[in-house]
Task: structure prediction
Amino acid sequence: MGLDMYAYVAARAGQQNEFYEGSTWDPELKQSVNPAIEQPREIAYWRKHPNLHGWMEQLWNKHNGGDQDSSKFNGIEVELTWDDLDRLEHIIKKRRLPDTSGFFFGNNADQHYYDQDLEFVQKAKAETFLGLKVFYNSSW
Result:
């Protein structure tokens, strides 16, 4: 077990959950399929990057008007706007992601993911520039 983190592109909030709730496993394709809903497209995956997760939690709190219970920030979809991504890029470059810990989170991985984080921000900005929505989600 551990902290798995995803960023994906979808047309609307909740699309990821709707896709998986109504999907079936296709053994030939070796993936989930749902003819009624398009599968969101994953653009980033991190395994145990606690400080990025902490930044996303702070963003979730900001969008929800204050301090939420951090034990509930699991499986929560957070939409990332251009401005959010711009702030994140500056924080990553200054190496100022917030120190975050948790039972399943692992150790600080900022250096390990530095290049991948910046690549994610660039991909996500390109998607938002095209008018698409970018979301973060996690599971631990």
